[in-house]
Every structure is written in C-alpha cells, then in structure tokens.
Amino acid sequence: MVGFVGSLGVGKLGSVGRADGLCSRKSVVVMGTGNSFGKLFKISTWGESHGIGVGVTIDGCPPRLELSPEDVQKELDRRKPGQSKLTTPRKEDDMAEILSGVVSGKTIGTPIGILVRNKNQIGKDYDNIAVSYRPSHADATYDAKYGIRAVAGGGRSSARETIGRVAAGAVAKKLLKTYSDVDIVGYVQKVQDIAADNIDVDKVTLEDVESNIVRCPDEEVAEQMIGRIDEIRKTGNSIGGVVECVARNVPAGLGAPVFDKLEAELAKVYSAH
C-alpha cells in the first residue's frame, strides 16, 4: 500500500478499478478542486471527454466588450480534432455556444458561460481500461484520490478539457487586443531534433503559422517536421516538441511580487496538463 496526502485529506492508493468506475478500495472523501485559474480574470473549466459537453465559465471580463460566438469559434476551429493526419482521428464539430454574460454582441460584466457539446462519444472503446489502468495516464490517480472516475475518454484528464481553456483564451485575447493592442502568435518551433531557428519573432504572423498542418512558420522546416511525425506515427509511437508563443505590445507591470510574478503564473498554467 502506498500512502499519499491530498489537498484536503489522506487516502490510500487502490488496486485495479471496477467496471462501474468505482475504486475497489474505500477512499476518504475529498473535494474536487483545482479546476480554476486566475484572480481578476478567472476561468473555471468543466465537463468530461465523453459527457454531454465541455466548457468554461469566465468571471471578471469587463462589460461592453464586443464578443461573438465567431470570436471563440475561430480559435476552437484551430484546435479541434480530425484536421489532418497529424491529429487525433476523433470527429467533433466543436461548436461554441455562449450561454451567458453576452447580450446583443457585448459582454455585460457577469460570468460568461461557454459550452461545446460532445458528439463523437464511443464509450465501448474504453471498456478495457475499466479494469486496467493505462500507463502514464491519470486513471489510477483519480481512483486513488476520489474513489471514482469517468472511465470513457479519461474524463477530466482528456485533452478535450483544453476546449475550455481555448475558449477562455479567445475572450482574453480579444480583451487584450481591444484595450492594449496586444498581439499574440504561437507556433511549433521544434519537433524532436528538427528545429526552426530562423523565425523572426517581430514579424511572424498567424497567416505564416496557418500555412501548413504542423503550424510551423518556416515552410522548409515544416515539411521535415511533418515527415518525421508521420514516420513515428506509423510505428505507433509519439515524439515531443517545442511550442513558442510571442506576445507583442505587452504593457509593463503585469504580475506581482513575489509568488504572482508573470513568469510564475505562466509556468503554472503551461504545466497544468
């Protein structure tokens, strides 16, 4: 038995799970926290991979910001699955529905709720992991901490959780552009040992990034990256890479000493998946 200390209690690591998603050993009751980020502009993501849907609640967005479903949709379209041979084959429309906080195309200062409904849930694909944990996944940890888990798709530990982050990021991006003319561009800089080392961070544009399926603004290097990923994919394996993000016209003074420095806040959100 391996003991561990949770955020609000002490539990024991269970053995294998059961078909009903419950841990086979009794666990203490702990609260499900850790789904929110931010203070002034606070986001809380919610939903499971194979549930009704996933989404985000945004609290702290100022009123009178022009915001439409299209502002969110264009970012969700960039992350949705099934776009190319390099992404997950799951087919989802990932259509954003703004449930609250926006009236006649403008924010009203109240919490903004955004929902994306799941369509391509195939729960039977996960029947085997109901009784055996996947290596390097969160299945065993969820059972150990809560005594229950969403077996299909990994629940909250699925990459579909990032839909809420992307939707919130779209709103934050619009807010920063409107008030401070901040320009944000992200791209793939490296895949395994293939690197794009000659990108001009002062001039790179979203159009440059979107010019190929690997989203590297250096076309020659992008072709090498695509070839390498495809080669590894065919072996049933995966490889890592490096993503760079450039933010231009960022106002001075963001963050606060000591533990709320901008670098510290970025480090937390980047490592939280």
Q: What does this protein look like?
A:
The protein is an alpha+beta fold and 273 residues long. 24% of the residues lie in helices and 22% in strands. The protein contains six helices and 14 strands. The chain has helices at residues 69-79, 139-146, 162-180, 206-209, 219-233, 262-270; strands at residues 3-5, 10-12, 36-37, 42-47, 53-59, 96-100, 102-103, 106-107, 112-117, 183-191, 194-195, 241-248, 255-256, 260-261. The strands form five sheets. The chain has a five-stranded antiparallel β-sheet with strand order 3-4-5-9-6, with helices on one face.
Any key phrases for this structure?
3-stranded antiparallel β-sheet, 6 helices, alpha+beta, about 20% strand, about 270 residues
Largest sheet: 5 strands, antiparallel
From the alpha carbons, calculate the radius of gyration and give it in angstroms.
21 Å
Main sheet: which strands, in order across? 3-4-5-9-6
- The chain-level mean pLDDT equals 86
Q: What class, by secondary structure content?
A: alpha+beta
- The backbone outline, from C-alpha atoms, is globular
Which band does the percent of strand residues land in?
A: 15-25%
H/E topology pattern: EEEEEHEEEEHHEEHHEEEH
Low-confidence stretches: 1-19
Tell me how many strands there are: 14
Q: Give the count of helical stretches.
A: 6
* End-to-end C-alpha gap: 27 Å
Helix percentage range = 10-25%
